[in-house]
Write a structure and sequence with these properties.
Arc Repressor Mutant, subunit A; DNA polymerase, domain 1; 35% helix
Length: 624
């Protein structure tokens, strides 16, 4: 259908979720003309599941998005109702920021942010197929038959492609409760050779908070001094901090759940897709971990003013009555009223090994995938893919070099590298254990690692870059002062209190801080003049200095290892390389290499099934 509604765009973004929002915003900020097509304008930026951002490894990703010039951290800060820095009792590589958010405000802030950008247009409709010309995507065709053209298209459809919702023995089409599924795209791409699969995720019931007895639960308050995700100054919320609560299931709950297990779509075989291993449904927990008498339940507010409660840890697709009868046996839930039941959703995804490291598909040029379509789970994983797809789509249509983050540079780099080289047969979730350079990739130094890159792209402001340079300068000054500052017997009382050996000769504060028992506050409390002088420095700089001193040896070792791996990353493999000609490669190695076509020796070495001998043979064959 010809129409006069639309001009030709630089980039079309399909989907208004976390991936789509970041993709649209970043491309528009780079001065691309963007059209966001979403099935429902009222659900842009919606938190479909847990009303929270960050957590272990995920919080690091949000900080990286912010350092590059993305918006997930800013939106989270503007809508937070609780901030916590997780894992402070562990090493700095594990410290992870997390916010509890006001669900409605989060979506509202995203919508408002997008609407302030004059380079973004919106269209509420569904996309049925792509317009393709000589293996090049040049636009989309909507459900109304409207053809809209663009130089690049980013598909960020979340759980909507052929989505099916399951509650007990009931199943019906939907991309999310209350929203219809999207049809047509999977079928078209599959006919062109794309490998599609099914994945499953789920969500718990929502409860009326007025009917809960919080006295029977453990209160979980936010940090006394609440930080923020964004490295920008004073991205503050006007919302009040709220507590979460913890309670537990018990044998009675489990017995009630088991009564309905035969009606579970997951156990009776109606759900074919793989669910998230590290976020299983409650029915999965009680069968997989039958020896456990209880499971932790987090009772989380959905907003500052709403009484709706998210029951984290009780995801379920059991019949509604089974969910309810089980819930009221949880301490504090005896008189609970349900607002809506939990459900499972099954949806289409495409194996991410079909993508280049820019998130452009290998089969079709100028088509990018971002988010759950790539087999990931979580807002944060989706958002960072949207950011990278938006950046790279803009760069490509403007004939500029792609933007790729190495595994040693960012968790974002780890995530994309894992996806395109290893693929996934279950929803991929980021963990600190996935990053071999996690001591380098801390949440506290994301600005130091990535702001200059964001600035060079044209995303991070000069003010951001100046702030990072000040932080680095102040950190170096603090370290220098601590190297010169000597302590003698006056610190022994603190050393005894901390159960570490006393000193008999003068030692620098720098050397003392390398002891695991000591924190920088211990040093400063022993010398009030030093404590006073350090007040002129930013707290972030002081924390940065402390971490760099405490973990210096580990940081240097990881830097050396990262430098060694970079050599392999710089050894490129021609895109038209014929692996069948290479004698000596294992059969599995030849098949995997030919299928994935890794761009470098480094990425080839991380493909599952590629042996060290395969890499050695490749190096020899390439004359390296």
């Amino acid at each position: 259908m010809s129409n006069n509604l639309f001009k030709k765009y630089d980039i079309i973004v399909i989907g208004g979720g976390h991936a789509g929002c970041e993709a649209a915003m970043v491309a528009a900020n780079l001065n691309s003309k963007v059209l966001m097509i979403t099935m429902n304008m009222n659900t842009i930026g919606q938190m479909s599941c847990n009303p929270a951002m960050g957590g272990v490894a995920k919080g690091q990703i949000v900080r990286e998005i912010d350092a590059l010039g993305g918006y997930s951290g800013i939106i989270a800060d503007k809508s937070t109702i609780q901030f916590r820095m997780l894992n402070l009792s562990k090493g700095a590589a594990m410290w992870s920021p997390r916010t509890q958010n006001d669900r409605m405000r989060f979506a509202e802030e995203w919508r408002l942010q997008l609407e302030t950008n004059g380079n973004i247009d919106f269209w509420q409709e569904t996309v049925k197929q792509f317009i393709i010309e000589r293996n090049n995507v040049i636009g989309v065709k909507t459900g109304l038959g409207i053809e809209i053209y663009a130089d690049a298209v980013i598909l960020a459809a979340g759980t909507f492609m052929n989505g099916t919702i399951h509650i007990g023995e009931k199943s019906f089409s939907g991309g999310r409760m209350g929203d219809r599924a999207s049809m047509g795209i999977t079928e078209q791409l599959s006919s062109l050779g794309f490998v599609a699969g099914k994945m499953k995720t789920g969500t718990p019931p929502r409860i009326d908070g007025r009917t809960l007895n919080y006295k029977l639960m453990e209160e979980q308050k936010g940090d006394k001094v609440a930080e923020q995700f964004s490295f920008l100054e004073n991205v503050k919320t006007d919302l009040k901090q709220k507590s979460c609560f913890i309670t537990y299931t018990n044998k009675s709950v489990h017995q009630e759940l088991l009564k309905g297990i035969d009606k579970s779509p997951m156990f009776c075989g109606r759900i074919k897709g793989f669910g998230p291993r590290y976020c299983p449904s409650i029915e999965d927990k009680i069968t997989r971990f039958a020896d456990k008498e209880r499971h932790q339940i987090f009772v989380e507010p959905e907003g500052e003013q709403t009484v709706e409660i998210y029951v984290n840890g009780f995801s379920s697709s059991l019949p509604e009555d089974v969910q309810y009868k089980s819930l009221i046996k949880i301490p504090g839930f005896e008189n609970a009223k349900m607002f809506r039941s939990g459900y499972a959703i099954e949806y289409d995804f495409f194996q991410p090994t079909q993508l280049k490291n820019t998130l452009e598909t290998k089969i079709l040029e100028n088509l990018y995938f971002a988010g759950q379509i790539n087999g990931t789970t979580g807002y944060e994983e989706a958002a960072c893919q949207g950011l990278m797809a938006g950046i790279n789509a803009h760069l490509k249509i403007n004939k500029k070099a792609p933007f790729i983050l190495k595994r040693s540079e960012a968790y974002i780099g780890v995530l994309i590298d894992d996806l395109i080289n290893k693929g996934t047969d279950e929803p991929y979730r980021m963990f600190t254990s996935r990053a071999e350079f996690r001591i380098l990739l801390r949440q506290d130094n994301a600005d130091i690692r990535l702001t200059e890159k964001g600035y060079n792209l044209g995303l991070a402001s000069k003010n951001r870059l100046d702030n990072v340079r000040i932080k680095i300068e102040e950190t170096n000054k603090i370290i220098s002062i601590l190297k010169k500052k000597k302590f003698s017997s006056e610190i022994n009382s603190i050393l005894k209190e901390k159960q570490t050996s006393i000193i008999k000769e003068k030692q620098s504060a720098y050397k003392l801080l390398k002891r695991p028992e000591l924190k920088i506050e211990d040093i400063l409390n022993c010398d009030l003049d030093l404590k006073t002088s350090f007040k002129e420095y930013n707290q972030d700089s002081l924390t940065q200095a402390y971490i760099q001193i405490k973990y210096e040896n580990y940081i240097e070792k990881e830097k050396e290892l990262a430098q060694k791996t970079i050599k392999f990353e710089e050894l490129s493999i021609p895109s038209n390389f014929v692996y069948t000609k290479v004698k000596g490669l294992s059969t599995e190695g030849r098949e995997k290499l030919n299928d994935i076509k890794p761009p470098t020796i480094g990425s080839a070495s991380r493909i599952s099934g590629i042996s060290a001998s395969d890499i050695s043979i490749l190096l020899l064959y390439l004359g390296r």
